[in-house]
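Title: Prediction job returns without error message
Component: structure pipeline
Severity: low
Priority: P3
Assignee: unassigned

Description:
Job completed but the reporter wants confirmation the result is attached to the right record. Sequence as submitted:
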Amino acid sequence: MWARRKPKNRRLGREHVLDVKLRSSQVRAARLRLAAMALAVVFATVLGAYSLWRAGGWALDRLVYQNKAFAITHIDIQTDGVIAVDQLRRWTGVQVGDNLLALDLARVKRDLELVSLVKCASVERILPRTLRIRVTEREPLAQINTFRPRPSGGIETAVFQLDEEGYVIVPLDPRQRAPSAGGPADPLPTIVGLRAADIQTGRTNASPQVQDAVQLLAAFEKSDMTGLVDIKSVDVSSPDVLVATTDQGSVITFGVTELDRQLRRWQCINDLGHKMNKVIATLDLAVSNNIPACWLEASALPPARPKSPKHLRRKHV
């Protein structure tokens, strides 16, 4: 009997196993509580931030963007050209009573500058109730006549204008002109010899011949020849010369460089013809020496109409 093995105490081993299981469940429960607390904190933070954002937006709307204290009562528009102020106001899309602080100034500026006759515009808030707009217009220097199909069928003539940079402008409707701008504008010199495909409104014409033509007309406007004769058209079909036709029927050929010097020569020859009671028929100023010229008797021409003074732009409000 002494050799029989004494039974082991199994209760002690089971207690250790139960103790390990108990500690594992406690750790798991603690981790779940921490995770739940973390989620609760994150949710509360997000909810609080969203509530603050909504409250801030509500306060901003009520105190700023919907505040009648910032309602526009005066739209101060000035331009240096001929567009009527009421027309400019319609193009802005701004109404008296709109909130000044809620107004998108970039949108107003963009809408104005989409008009081809507007060169640039500035838009400014003057707190608490004034919107100030200043407009700089493009000054048409020449025009282009082209043909286009009518929606109802047939062909019609379309007229576009060019400024000193060769920017293509849609002519202003006479009803959109300011009363202080006077009557219809004087006819502009016509540039001929262009392809219709080269004319794109709202863009600068990159054709070298067109650029040379507008530079010639700009130099002519600043010269002493203005008031003596008027240029009616400029032919740009030849790549190296510009052929101008005057209101007297004279045909003057210019080179594309040194325009000021050629205009001075033209004035000297014109003065000489006046002393001889003759009018230039043709004159080739593209030739440097021994300039060829043909003359007409002044008495053979119809009486010239009075020349208008040099065009000066008038500012108006």
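Comment from assignee: result matches the submitted record. Confidence is low (pLDDT under 50) at residues 309-317.
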